[in-house]
Prior knowledge:
Layout: H1 17-21, E1 24-28, H2 32-44, E2 48-52, H3 77-88, E3 93-97, H4 101-104, H5 107-112, E4 115-118, H6 123-136, E5 140-146, E6 149-155, H7 168-171, H8 193-211, E7 221-224, E8 229-231, H9 266-270, E9 277-287, E10 297-301, E11 321-326, E12 332-336, H10 352-361
Parallel strand pairs: 1-2, 1-4, 2-3, 4-5
Antiparallel strand pairs: 5-6, 6-7, 7-8, 9-10, 9-11, 11-12
Helix pairs in contact: 2-8
Amino acid sequence: MTGDRFARHALIPGWDQKRLAGATVVLAGAGALGNTVAQTLALSGLGRLVVCDPDTVAVSNLSRCPLFRAADVGRPKARVLAEALTDLAPDTVVDAREAPHLSGAGLAELRAADLVVGALDSRAARIALAGRCTLAGTGMLDGGTHAWGGEVSWFPPGGRCWACGLGPAERAVQDDPWSCAAPDPAGAVGASAPVSALVGTWLADFAVRLLLGLSVPDAPLRIDAAGLAVPLSGTAPRDRPDPDCPLHERLPDGVPVLPLDHGATVAELLDHVDMGEEPLTWAGFSRPVRRRAAVPAVTSRLRSAPASARLSALGVAPREVLPVARRDGSGLRYVELAAKAGEPVGAPGESAQERRATTEGAR
């Protein structure tokens, strides 16, 4: 094969192929929207894509997910998507994480990413991703669909998040994402190939523009399958967080990096904290109980886990930043798990988006 596959991109004002090739995106969700976003970003020349999804391919996915085939039914969505993109766009490195985003991509990885894209199917998952993005100082691009349309929203670092404007009761809703292989839950809405492709393409278009440093609408974009795509009116400025939203804490600067990754055991982690400290997970895990009839309790306290248990088996993500609390309640600090060999590491306390903004401001 001769020629440059991205030659036509060079004719577009503002397009920077090298910038895309050097960018990393974390994608939460590999369903219909996630398929379209991943396919479009890879074809655009994205350098690295981290895909998080715990679900498997179901027959119902085949009508809306261009990267899935009938032979893939029952296989992990993230893995199938990565394999398909390897053939479609071999220059894009795809890292499949067969887990929800909470256990699939750690806070240090979110901080180092150029963009986080949410293609999720529940309020609880979106709120959790919004909280992690604000902790990491990384912007979140979110998309969602309804029967005949959808929305695309950009939440920049330091501004409003997906949960801003929600009341305490709305933020407390635990609507677990449902598996595509399970029976439809009550209240499930219809979905189709045209709408999924339309909204997913808008989501990917926003992603490419943000990665290239180009502008996107201030307000969420409402997309109608009849052909309309208009910013919503009457929405609050995206650069002003809701003062009542509790999700706007930021990790402190200078978090120490431990010589351990998420494959380490609990015992190895405990060697790096004081006896008076309690390392915690962001995702709870089942604590072993001795009484046979008892229901296993869910805890986030790592001292409650078996010493030989691996952090990854307890839901700790690669490159996670873990809170460590004083057992007497007197304070809290954080520790960062090291990256595996070959993975890029951002400067502690500084997100990739902030580094890029600083560099561009100095030009």
